[in-house]
Structure formats: structure tokens, C-alpha cells
Amino acid sequence: VVRKRFGKGEVISVNTYLWYGYKQAGNDANRFAEMLIGRYSLRDVGVEGALRVRVSEREDARFAFVFNYTDTEQTGRLVGLGFDEDVTVAPHDVLVIKKEK
Fold first, then answer.
1. How large is the average pLDDT for residues 55-75?
2. Rounded to an integer, what distance in angstroms lies between the CA atom of residue 2 and that of residue 93?
3. CA-to-CA distance for 69 and 46, rounded, in angstroms?
């Protein structure tokens, strides 16, 4: 479990193979993943290397949550939905990037 504070909020990530299973099968076994995608307006954005990213939107901003599930620091380029930057994330951590709309 990874917990990261950002401004007045926080992100709690429970690292499982939920997203891998959703991408592979996308069936009834993954209704929980589908609920999260719908409820939090999650979108895919491209990032290089071993990093994984999800984007959540609100009326005035987008937030990219860049996850590193590996045992070493990872660097990659985040591209899409207004994001275009290099990112570095510590081992087993999450980086939150905010973009105003």
C-alpha cells in the first residue's frame, strides 16, 4: 500500500494486479476496476518505461498519478491530455502532477 499526500488531499494505492487483469480480460471479474474508472474519470496517458499512470479530472484541473511499482527509481516521459514532461518516481511511490485546464 502506498500513501502520498498532495495539497489538501491524499492518494492511497493498493498495489494489485487489478489493472493488469482489466486490460487482459475486461470481463465481469473486473467490475471493481470498471467502477473505479467511471467514478473517478480515470483516463490512460502514455508514459515510458516501467512507470504506470492514471489521470483523474475535475472541472478546473487534471491530475496525473504516476506509479512506480518497481524496487528502483524510474524515469520516463509523460505525454497526453495536456501533459508533456519528464518524470522521476522513487521506488514503490506515486508522483501526482496537476495541470490546470
1. 89
2. 6
3. 16
